[in-house]
Amino acid sequence: MLLITAVLLSACGSKAPAKVRVATDATWPPFETVDETTKELVGFDIDMVKAIAVKASLDVEFVNVGFDPLLAGMAQCQYDAAVSAITILPERQANMLFSDPYMNAGQIVAVKIDNTDILSKDNLSGKTVGAQIGTTGAIEVGKISGATLKTFDTVDLAYLALQNGQIDAVVADSPTAAGFVLKNADKLKMVGNVFTDENYGIAICKTNTDLQKKINEGLAAVKADGTFDQLLTKYNLVAK
Question: Does a structural domain hold residue 9?
C-alpha cells in the first residue's frame, strides 16, 4: 500500500506540459506556410516555436488564421500566443505582450524586374502600392504622400498582382520580401534600402506574463545552443 501510494503521489506531482494555442497566418514563406504535399505548417517561425516549446516544456498547438483576425484574436486573448512575422509596434503592445525581439524586419520595396522608374520608396508617389492588410507595410504606404494603397488579404496575392501588372510595387518586411523575390527572381526585384527599423516578436496574451517569461527563456535557450542559427541557415535567413 505504501508503495502504491508513493507511485500515485509521484504521478500527481509531475505536471504535463502546458497547452499553448499559437495562432499563425501561414502565408509568409519562409517564416510560415503550408506544405503543399503534407498540408503541415512549416517554416522558420514554426520550427523556432517548436524548439522553444521543448526548452520551456510547453505543448504547442498551431491555429492557422488570417493576419487581421490573428491580431484581433490576440487583443482579446482568443489565442495564447501568435507567431507570424509579427512586427513589435507600440499600438500592438497596447493590446498584447511580446517576447524579446528575434529578428530585424524593416520594410523594403519590391517591383517588377523590368521596372526602371521606382528606385526606392521615394519614387512611390503617384504609384499604386500593394501590401497585406493590417501589416506595417500597409501602414508605411499610408504615410507616403501621393501613393495609393491597395491592400490584400495575403501578401502572396500582393506579389501576384505585382507580377500581373495590376500594381506598381509592394511594400513588405524585408525578410519575407527576400523570400518571394528569390522564388521569382526572373520576375521581381527589391529596390532601395530597408527604410524602417523594426523587429519581429512572438505575441502573447496580455494577461499571461508567466507564458511571456517561459517563451523568453526558451528563446534565449535556442539561441544559446545554436538551434536558432541552424534555423537561419536552413531557411536562408540572416538575423540583423
Answer: no
CB 93 within 8 A of CB 224: no
The residues with which 150 forms a beta bridge, in sequence order, are 130
Task: For residue 127, give its domain range.
Answer: 106-191
In the block, residue with C-alpha cell 509592394: 170
Burial string for 44-58 (b: 16+ CB within 10 Å, else e) reads bbbbbbbbbbebbeb
- Do 57 and 25 have their domain in common? yes
Instruction: Tell me what the mean pLDDT of segment 121-129 comes to.
Output: 97
Does residue 50 fall inside a structural domain? yes
Q: pLDDT for 82-107, tens place per residue?
A: 999 999 999 999 999 999 999 988 99
Backbone angles phi, psi at 41, to 5 degrees: -75, 130
* 42 inside domain: yes
- Residue 222 — left, alpha, or beta (φ > 0 → left; ψ -120 to 50 → alpha)? alpha
User: Do residues 25 and 92 both lie within one domain?
Assistant: yes
Whether residue 236 has pLDDT greater than 70? yes
Which pTM was predicted? 0.78
Residue 163 phi, psi dihedral angles, 5° rounding: -60, -35
| Backbone φ and ψ of 169, nearest 5° | -160, 165
Grouping H, G, I as helix, E, B as strand and the rest as coil, residue 180 is helix
Contact in structure between 135 and 171 (CB atoms under 8 Å) = no
Report, in angstroms and rounded to the nearest whole number, the Rg of the chain calculated over CA atoms.
20
